[in-house]
Amino acid sequence: MARRFPPLSSWQLEVLKWISDGCPEGVMKGFTYKATAIALQGRRLVVVSKRRGSWSASVTDDGRYYLEHGTYPQREGPASDEVESQDATVRAVRRTAAKKPRAVKTRHVEIRETFMRYRVMVTRVQVAERYVRAADEEDAAKRVQAEFDRPYGYFGSWKTTNSEVEVIEAEQTTVIKPNPLSKEGPLLLSIKDAGKALGLSYSTVTELVNRWEIEHVLIGSRKYISREALMKFIEQNTHRGYHR
Predict the structure, then answer these.
(1) Does pLDDT of 81 surpass 90?
(2) Residue-wise DSSP of 93-148
(3) Residue pair 141/102 in contact by the 8 Å Cβ criterion
(4) Interatomic CA distance for residues 112 and 121, integer angstroms
(5) Own/partner pairs, 236-241, CB within 8 angstroms, 24+ separation
(6) 3-state SS of the chain: helix, strand, coil percent to 5?
(7) How does pLDDT run across 183-225, given as a tens digit for each residue?
(8) Are 104 and 181 in contact (CB under 8 A)?
(9) pLDDT tens-digit readout, 17-70
(10) Burial class (CB in 10 A: 0-12, 13-18, 19+), 28
(11) Which of 3, 46, 120, 212 is the most buried (most CB within 10 A)?
């Protein structure tokens, strides 16, 4: 599916226009615009370059298209109604994931767990101030650059002036794993997994095991319950009608 970006904010649009004008000096101050330019580069609107201490940026074809039309260029991908359908599916999956899972009533049901994986881009601008003895500005820049190139150069001297966190992509992933009571599940279950299979709390299952109402297997200092022992416990405690 083609990547969809949110519309630019007023500040991002201002930085994009400034880059389109050739980055004239005296307009932008501080370092905030550099972080914004890097965020625009993630949206394929500009290209940022840093070489030997000099910073430059240029507008891409997508950036010029956005300045002219106020929107991103259309690319090959699913139709808009299909995108809306996929978005509706994602929202439905989120609502389903928020609900409490129902107890498993059969022995051969697979467990499907759906997750959303997000790609997040973090942009941070840091500055460091140093004092050096030098003959001129060029010599001062070379000395500072030499110090910066050393491992852990300026360690502890950096100060963050601006940061941006932007979610640029989302992907739905589904993990399918067998139910502990299915044929593909393990032969022995921990107390915690046995409680999930029975729909009982960890403390309740522990008490039943300690009272020998559920057979268990002792491995080292840990107790495990077989699938057959769980089914036997359910059969022995299943009653019909009134029980006196």
Answers:
(1) no
(2) HHHHHHSPPPPP-SSS-EEEEEEEEEEEEEEEEEE-------SSHHHHHHHHHHHH
(3) no
(4) 29
(5) none
(6) 35, 25, 40
(7) 667 888 899 988 888 888 999 999 999 988 899 898 988 999 9
(8) yes
(9) 999 998 888 888 777 888 888 889 988 899 988 877 788 889 999 999 999 998
(10) middle
(11) 46
What whole-number distance in Å separates Cα of residue 49 and Cα of residue 63? 16
Contacts of 198 (CB under 8 A, 6+ apart): 205, 230, 234
Under 8 Å between Cβ of 104 and 177 = no
Residue keyed to tokens 């994009």: 16
> For the chain, what's the residue count?
244
Q: Indicate the helix (H) or strand (E) that contains 220.
A: none
DSSP-assigned states of every residue in 55-102: EEEEE-HHHHHHHHHSSPPP-SSS-HHHHHHHHHHHHHHHHHHHSPPP
Query: What pTM did the predictor assign?
Result: 0.35
- Dihedral angle, C-alpha 137, 138, 140, 142, nearest 10 °: 160
User: Which tens digits make up the pLDDT trace of 150-179?
Assistant: 766 666 677 777 777 777 777 766 655 555
Query: Position 20: which residue type?
Result: S
